[in-house]
Amino acid sequence: MSKLQIAIVGAGVIAEFHAKAVKDIPDAQLAAICDIDSEKADKLASQYGCAAFDGLENMLKSVDVDILTIATPSGLHRDPAITAAQYGIHTIIEKPLEVTVERINEIIDAHNKAGTKLGCIFQTRYSESLDPLRDAIKRQRFGRITFAGVYVPWWRSDDYYKDSWHGTWKLDGGGALMNQAIHMIDTLCELMPDIESVNAFTARVGHPDIEAEDSAAAALKFKNGALGVIHGSTACYPGQPKRLEIMGTEGTAVYLEDSYTVFEFKNSEPGDQQVLEKYANMDYKSGFSDPKAIAHTLHTKCFEDFIESIRTGTEFKISGPEASKSVKLIESIYKSAREGRTVSL
User: Fold this and answer.
1) Where are the domains of the chain?
2) Over residues 27-38, mean pLDDT
3) Of the candidates 189, 178, 182, 177, which has an alpha carbon nearest to the alpha carbon of residue 148?
4) Cα–Cα distance, 144 to 164 (Å, whole number)
5) For 83-98, how does the pLDDT look when each residue is reduced to its tens digit (9 = 90+)?
């Protein structure tokens, strides 16, 4: 079986995570990297032993590519994704898929028309530590779920935003929610997808000079009557681990990064204590104070799953429509904060 040839668009920080992930996959080979900054493309390509280009179409015409992975600023995902579809190339995109649902739908339509695979990288979904939580929800061990909360109290310095696309509406699609908290918002959308409405506030508290929010708080109402909270920030020094809480009439789970601080149910099982012990004091790497302080191992799992979906013709778990859910929720939060009212989803 021949290796799938993968090319990367973009040669910034996240592109290196993609390159590392591809390098770890026996079934794949990094064929090329392109960036409008040719020096950056050359540097990263030489590091990983592949070709470098300063234009996407030149790369696609010069190199056989099976999969294009997009690692440009978020608001620049649409055009290369559509170009890839026109060339008949499967495409996987760093989160978010794009900065608005409208732009996401254009990408989805292009790949549906081309018959190519489209996926998004939400690597948190590949953390095995979430499996006990998924299982507990599936088996209704919480009873009636009454509350779900997501908290991402992170820190980014002024240097992170200075002379950067970060925190801009056009290229980042927003601030702390669309860039940092979106991973846990995606997890919430997977676990508790039936959100009815949101009421939210956003603010620039620690970084007053950026366009978008560095702090956001949203109250959620779910269709089953449960309530919820989303807190996302890059103004919480020195940054704290992300947290997810699910509570119900018969159980509570508190998930802290890759660990559980609470995993308790009315009808206890022997495995409950094992979950606490297995995932206690995990030696995790997180980006709560440094965007580079994450491991690439979950990116690797995501790429492997995408490749498997291509090989087998099965649906990739983070398809275009699935990846759009978190962006739709965040857009609704922004609308609520902007208009000062409850917004229905």
Assistant:
1) 4-121+296-319, 127-289
2) 98
3) 189
4) 45
5) 999 999 999 999 999 9
